[in-house]
Automatic annotation (TrEMBL):
<dbReference type="InterPro" id="IPR038899">
    <property type="entry name" value="METTL22"/>
</dbReference>
<keyword id="KW-0949">S-adenosyl-L-methionine</keyword>
<dbReference type="InterPro" id="IPR029063">
    <property type="entry name" value="SAM-dependent_MTases_sf"/>
</dbReference>
<dbReference type="InterPro" id="IPR019410">
    <property type="entry name" value="Methyltransf_16"/>
</dbReference>
<keyword id="KW-0808">Transferase</keyword>
<keyword id="KW-0489">Methyltransferase</keyword>
<feature type="compositionally biased region" description="Basic and acidic residues">
    <location>
        <begin position="61"/>
        <end position="81"/>
    </location>
</feature>
<dbReference type="GO" id="GO:0005634">
    <property type="term" value="C:nucleus"/>
</dbReference>
<dbReference type="GO" id="GO:0032259">
    <property type="term" value="P:methylation"/>
</dbReference>
<protein>
    <submittedName>
        <fullName>Methyltransferase 22, Kin17 lysine</fullName>
    </submittedName>
</protein>
<dbReference type="GO" id="GO:0008276">
    <property type="term" value="F:protein methyltransferase activity"/>
</dbReference>
<dbReference type="Pfam" id="PF10294">
    <property type="entry name" value="Methyltransf_16"/>
</dbReference>
<feature type="region of interest" description="Disordered">
    <location>
        <begin position="53"/>
        <end position="106"/>
    </location>
</feature>
Length: 372
């Protein structure tokens, strides 16, 4: 699977386009017959000092800092000694006479090849069987689908596709979700103990990061196959979650609807505005949910401004982004006597915790919803 065949309607995530092939492992085929890969996203910074709920005390953090400083000093001394030894080795290599042939070229003495009997080669060779990838059946149990594997607490394991038609791009990992995950990790106290709703969760990566600190996260999307992939990713990352029900069936119970109505204060979505119809559906849903919540809500929307050359305009345009900005303006200018929305663009200069290219086209918007 090193070479993939792309059709004219194939969409490939920039995240996987820029990362090396060895960073992804193909694990199985989904119900649609699309190859599913497993990628690991390591949290680059020490998030334990920010306390996900079981953080270190101040004294422990100071002790770790001093210990790290001591190790740094010892590493510097080792590097200095290593440089001295390397210099001595270079001098020693220059001193012996290099064997040369008549023309002055380097004369290399080749070792004769060992001849091993064919029977011995076949007898010592390991027997290998091909791995046949099969589609994941919808009725397969989670225990059969999820492999038992220990994963460090600072690593997020995500199963995803790499090349899909436009209608299935939610099965991929996009930079907007990674930027929103960085924002969550940089503002832990803001989301600690909150009840949160994500719209268009896709692979569920951002919801997983939010679940590391929030009280409850409702991870939503459309399509049984997409929700199955999201649920599988939750099962693969139980090491990140302190508690909670990770085996919920798809759908809403009366208790969950009541909890969302009474306690939800944060809504967010990332990279879901690539089609005008989807953008209209997103803003209608945001208005309907915000107007029915008991508490004032804060909405975080992340989008990547994608430049495309169109034949219609004969120029580089960002039609999906322009329509998203138009929808934001309409939401802020809305006057219905029930709700007031305040729109604000946030700076993206917060620390980066995950490995991806934070391009200038990534934007994060904050919408504050309040009842009149």
């Amino acid at each position: 699977m090193d070479q993939m065949v792309f059709r004219s309607d194939t969409v490939l995530s920039d995240v996987h386009l820029l990362l090396p092939n060895r960073g992804h492992l193909m694990v199985h085929l989904n119900v649609a017959g699309q190859p599913v890969f497993a990628s690991r996203f390591k949290i680059l910074r020490d998030c334990k000092t920010q306390d996900f709920g079981h953080g270190s005390t101040t004294a422990e953090q100071e002790e770790k800092t001093s210990h790290a400083s001591g190790e740094l000093g010892r590493d510097e001394k080792k590097m200095e000694r290593g440089e001295e030894e390397e210099g001595n080795n270079l001098e020693a290599q220059r001193s012996p006479k290099v064997p040369l042939d008549e023309d002055g070229d380097l004369d290399v003495v080749r070792r004769p090849a060992e001849r091993v009997p064919t029977e011995l080669c076949l007898r010592n060779r390991d027997i290998m069987y091909p791995t046949i990838l099969s589609r994941t059946e919808p009725d397969a149990t989670e225990e059969e689908q999820v492999e038992e594997e220990e994963c460090p607490r600072d690593v997020i394991k995500i199963e995803h596709t790499m090349a899909t038609p436009l209608e299935d791009v939610g099965k991929q990992v996009w930079r907007g979700g990674l930027l929103l995950a960085d924002f969550i990790l940089s503002q832990l106290e803001m989301f600690r103990g909150a009840t949160v709703l994500e719209l268009g969760a896709g692979t569920g990566l951002t919801s997983l990061v939010m679940a590391m600190v929030a009280k409850r996260v409702y991870c939503t999307d459309v399509g049984h196959d997409l929700l199955t992939m999201c649920q599988r990713n939750i099962m693969l990352n139980t090491h990140l979650l302190d508690s909670g029900d990770t085996n919920s069936e798809f759908g809403w119970s009366e208790e969950e609807v009541a909890d969302l109505h009474d306690n939800a204060t944060v809504l967010f979505a990332a990279d879901v505005c690539y089609d005008d119809n989807l953008t209209d559906s997103l803003f209608r849903t945001l208005y309907r949910i915000s107007s029915n919540l008991c508490n004032p809500g804060t909405i975080y929307l992340c989008i990547e401004k994608r430049l495309n050359f169109t034949i219609r305009h004969l120029n580089v345009t960002c039609e999906a982004y322009d329509y998203f900005r138009h929808s934001l303006d309409n939401l802020q200018d809305l006057v219905d006597g029930k709700m007031r929305f305040t729109v604000e663009q946030l700076e993206t200069c917060f620390p980066q915790f995950l490995q991806y290219e934070r391009v200038d086209q990534l934007e994060l918007w904050k919408v504050t919803a309040s009842h009149l």
